[in-house]
Amino acid sequence: MALLAPYSKIPELNTATILLVENEEKVQSKLADAIVQREKDVNVNVRLACKLPLPVENSETRPRVDLVVFIVNLLSERSLQVVENSLNHLRSDFFLGKVCFMVTDARCGALAQERLLSVKKLAASHRCPVICAEHQTEDGISMAASRLLTVLKVSAGLSPVATTALYLSTLTRCTVPSELDED
Amino acid sequence: MNEEARAILQRVLRRLPSRKTQSTLRAWGCLSAQQLEDLDYTQPKWLLLENLISKCEESRLHLKDVTKLDMVYHIENPNQGTWHAFKLTEAEDEALSVDFTQFKEMFVAHLEEVVQHVSIRIKKLEDGAVWIRIAWGDNFTKPNHLKPTYAVHYLQTPYVFILNLAAKHKPFVYQALVLSTRHVSINEAHLTGRSLTAMRDLLMKQYQQVFPNQERTLKERNAPPSHPNIDKEHAEFAERTHQMACEAFGDGTVPKLETAVYKLETRYRGSNNNTLSDRDELFRGVVRFSSPNLLESLRHCVSTGMAEGPVTPLLSSITQKGRNYFVIAEKVPGATSQTPAHKT
Amino acid sequence: MMGKRDVQIYFRLNWRLLAMEGRVSSAVNTPANMPMTRRKSYGRSCVENPSLFWQTPGHFPALGHRIPSSRGAARSRNVLSKVDPEQVALLVKHEWKLAYVTPLYRFRHTQLKLYSKHLTAFIIAEKQQGVAIEVGVEAGFKVTISTILGMAESEDDAETIFIQIHSKPTFGAEALKLVWRGWLTCVNGDREYLRSLPPDFVSLPLFCSSGSESLTALVRSWFERTFDCNFGSLFLNSTTLNWLAALWTGCHPSSNIRFLKLTWTMPTQPSLDIMYTVNPQDAWELWNSIHTEDSADDRIHIDEVQQFMNGLETHLFRHFKIYLSAGTLMKVSTSLGSAHHEGKIKIGSSDYISTLLTLLTECALLRTPV
Description:
B: three-stranded mixed beta sheet, disordered C terminus, C: eleven-stranded antiparallel beta sheet, two-stranded antiparallel ribbon, 15 strands, 39% helix
């Protein structure tokens, strides 16, 4: 099985590529529109996928992926399952600051809280940040887009501030209170 | 106008939405154009009913005429109540040459022969559907027009759809149908639903079907990304699953079924570890799928990846076999199952 | 009024203090102080958003500790020996809409008569907006608030109170008509939490109502004004419904559950409902093969519950290839009762009522913003 690798291709000038993985394909297209419309300085490519691995046919045309975002819809167990399975199809060097999780519906009263906890544990064990997003309003989507762009620019090495993805990830990664690990 | 006629009139009027009242009364054709003009359809229904009754008495209408209105109502609103589909089998040679007059005469004759008090009304519509209304009585009572059975048959097809048929009347209707259509037997088709047209379309395959080797016409459905910088990695895959879903459940507007029921008597196929694996008995349960439009829901379910492909024969049998009730029984050595095995 | 506010503020500060302490103590985490942190996990500050999730990556309070991972198997308790059968009958067979309630301030079980009068006056006043109402005149409505003694299981539980609203016909001597009923209860509420409440507070976290929405809203707003509490809708998430499915199935040998019915809704267009009715004996045998009754105190672990539900879901998946996990478990029902995702329950039999109410009390406490 070919793993998706972060450094197998040469980066293009002033270009960053973000891969949005979401099983339900509900939020990703809205988010993709917001991302490409928001960014004016950098050429941002958005790749949409419902799961990993990605189809082999596209591997030639696919640019180097700088950031993988796993979108988990907290109301669906399947959403989490697909993400868990997808993680195995990334090369480990992606986890040095080039992966993040985004959860939706975290405020919903009907939420099974265990699921949010599972996402947090998953993210913490992979040293990745978790971003909570509001997907029902335009403001929420554009806020989520801007947060992803910030991370993306760092992970693609385009940030003018001397920040590396590895450094950023140590600051933003999700941590779960230590007593929970003992369960 | 007796009490029963009044009751029927009242019931039909109550069910009719106000805006459709006039057109239904016109389709009935028992009142003159002037009488229809005179009625005020914006009145409250109880008042309209009184006026309607007086018009009927003016025209000396009888119970017979009112039952005709009941039939008109059902023809215009075939989605009231649950229809059951039946299939005639083993057609005799003459079956193809039975025409409407012949069918009508024979059906009435056969039914009146075995049931003493029965009132039958038969009408053929322009689309070829033969509508039959049967009000049942018995040796001592007059036919009950408040609980009629309706049957719809398309001549030269094996399909009959029946509404409100009591078990005790079943053999009479079966026999009359079989004899008058020149068939040998009739069976339940295991298809029920509220929509008569949907059931007809499903059984007669009158909906947009998609076949495996068909030229791909679905491409335009997959909208291209809205921006040149956005690419869908799984576009090809999504198209394939959509094609698969359409092959199983049809494309475009599909027949509007509401439910599908599976009675499962199969071996437990749960978890991989050893729970119940050494068990001989079958794991029994009933699975009921329901939706305002079942086939559309299932198509969406498959095409969005909520189901794993290929589509299981259990689900595709709904369209393939035109059924929505299945008994899935597994043969077990040693244990005898009561139900006839039907394993797809 | 002033005094009341003071106490409330004191209460909040008190909790913040505890919460801070909790964070300090979690740094030195030894098994010995685990019960301490658990107690404090309830003691988050009021000013935090109740949904907990507004903060993005960092810490969130010890959520996991609030969700128990095992509980006692459902045991038939003869409720009727403790509680008046007529009163139990009031709870059975109706569909109840659930809500959570924050602790009631200065609520006294001894004052129910007075509360009845005030609530009656309040409802009438709200119904005839703007007209002055004299307390004690019962025109149109009559409210009765009573205690259902014996529902409480532990000594920390407050006794259940039951509210009935009758409408009075304006003319004639027609009988009163029962138009609304509701109750507040606490069964086996978390002991640490209940004991940590300041003395003037009574916790009856679970509110069940049956009747018109408008009356429910009036009753809620009267309670909120009178006892400075808050109501919020209570959903039953899949974990709770899974627990119920397993607990009820476990009862089958002693009390025939007749069927185990599970309903999922798939987010298709239009939405698809999948209802799976399992033969009770087969469901129990599956449960029995997963759950082993080894110890004297018959504990059920969440893993067993998960395994049981996964087993049923996988069985269906092998037939229909539909990922039920993409949908939502909406409803679980047996002849012992039913529970709906949107916070609606029906109690089918009084036998296992305390098991059900224990679970629901816990859900209500989990949802209660502290």
